[in-house]
């Protein structure tokens, strides 16, 4: 067997060079692998450091258990890759194996959380299940997706960077209540408005709350609002775009007119008006944001459908007597879905920023709930007095999370739309 045909094997990867100079490809691969591994190790070390001084007392056990789950998923992924390479299983059965491993680990995690601390079983179980799942997804991304994304060039690296940023923040939020140094909702933990110090690395708020604890736990509300709003947008905007544009006629005109009317309003102003009518709450904030961004899905899907339904294979299906439902879901939807997914990934960043804006103007949850938007609101009043830390760190976290979603969306857009590269 020639050197060109040999595979590069490692703990995380299994890659066969297919084109280009073998040594150069191997060197680039190892450089990319080293950067990814160093980043992962830094993040894991940070979480372990926080867990060691956590307020819960079992933070290190929570982090250690979720890392153990990720290691088990890594072993399962390596076993799946070996079986695929030997031709002993099909790709479908290989992913079924990974899914079964996720389900089994989730059930075990729920039981461990329930019997470990019964009075806090719900929060601990969700942290173990959610944290293990997120770390498992990160391992799958590193093991299976990274080699494929690397072949896409800069778009692949941008996508992986965005996904890793988002998943790191999601994991931090899921296990936050078990790794924070102090209770993020508790007042008078330290001196009022104290600057960063050894005891309070990020300082304290004007209410004596630990800013590091609130920064770690503050992403939960925004992630919930963003997830619910994007799901609602996708569930309404995509079917409307499919049905209206394919049917055409007065139905398309009326729905397009309504969507254009909504799109004409400034997004944040419309979201503020709707949230003010609905009142505070996670679901109400999500619905207010969803109404604003439904037209984005509708317009993208509608433009795609108008092009796809004129293609020869769709016309051939119509001539052969295929039902409209079959044409929509078997021929049209698969071709417009990539564009909708790209809009969805970018819409996450917009939803994060809009949720922060709603909280900033006082339409969020109560101040006792840790939230980056509330810290921005109160920090803006203290910034004039020189207390820059209260507004800086929550603002940086919002920017990093929005940046992660934006990078993932832009990378996916270039990967799913090859003509952009041309």
CATH superfamily caption of the largest domain:
MetI-like
Question: What is the averaged pLDDT score?
Answer: 80
Query: Which percent band covers the strand fraction?
Result: under 5%
What's the number of helices? Answer: 15
What gross morphology would you assign? globular
Characterize the biggest β-sheet: 2 strands, antiparallel
- The percent of residues in helical segments reads over 70%
Strand order of the largest sheet: 1-2
Could you say what the CATH topology of the largest domain is called? MetI-like fold
Tally of strands: 2
Structural class, from helix and strand content?
mainly alpha
- Name the helix and strand elements from N-terminus to C-terminus, one letter apiece: EEHHHHHHHHHHHHHHH
């Amino acid at each position: 067997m020639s050197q060109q045909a040999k595979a590069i094997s490692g703990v995380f990867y299994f890659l066969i060079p297919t084109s280009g100079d073998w040594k150069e490809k191997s060197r680039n691969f190892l450089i990319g692998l080293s950067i990814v591994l160093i980043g992962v190790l830094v993040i894991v070390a940070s979480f372990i450091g926080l867990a060691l001084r956590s307020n819960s007392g079992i933070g290190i056990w929570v982090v250690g258990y979720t890392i153990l789950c990720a290691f088990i998923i890594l072993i399962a992924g390596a076993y799946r890759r070996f079986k695929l390479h030997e031709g002993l299983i099909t790709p479908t059965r290989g992913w079924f194996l990974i899914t079964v491993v996720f389900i089994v680990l989730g059930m075990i995690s729920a039981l461990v959380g329930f019997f470990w601390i019964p009075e806090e079983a719900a929060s601990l179980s969700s942290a173990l299940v959610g944290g293990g799942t997120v770390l498992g997804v990160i391992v799958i991304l590193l093991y299976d997706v990274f080699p494929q994304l690397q072949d896409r060039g800069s778009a692949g690296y941008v996508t992986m960077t965005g996904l890793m940023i988002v998943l790191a923040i999601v994991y931090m939020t899921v296990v936050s209540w078990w790794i924070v140094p102090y209770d993020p909702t508790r007042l008078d933990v330290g001196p009022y408005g104290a600057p960063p110090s050894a005891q309070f690395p990020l300082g304290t708020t004007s209410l004596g709350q630990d800013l590091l604890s609130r920064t770690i736990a503050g992403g939960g509300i925004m992630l919930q609002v963003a997830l619910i709003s994007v799901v609602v947008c996708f569930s309404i905007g995509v079917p409307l775009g499919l049905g209206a544009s394919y049917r055409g006629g007065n139905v398309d005109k009326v729905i397009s007119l309504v969507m254009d009317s909504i799109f004409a309003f400034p997004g944040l102003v419309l979201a503020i008006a709707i949230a003010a009518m609905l009142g505070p709450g996670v679901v109400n904030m999500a619905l207010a944001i969803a109404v604003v961004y439904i037209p984005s899905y509708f317009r993208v899907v509608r433009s795609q459908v108008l092009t796809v339904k004129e293609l020869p294979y769709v016309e051939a299906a119509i001539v052969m007597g295929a039902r409209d439902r079959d044409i929509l879901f078997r021929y049209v939807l698969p071709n417009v879905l990539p564009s909708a997914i790209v809009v969805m990934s970018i819409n996450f960043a917009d939803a994060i920023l809009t949720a922060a804006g709603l909280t900033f103007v006082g339409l969020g949850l109560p101040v006792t709930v840790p939230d980056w938007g509330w810290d921005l609101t109160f920090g803006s009043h203290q910034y004039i007095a020189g207390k820059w830390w209260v507004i800086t760190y929550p603002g940086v976290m919002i920017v990093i999370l929005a940046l992660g979603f934006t990078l993932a969306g832009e990378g996916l857009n270039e990967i799913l739309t090859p003509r952009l590269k041309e």
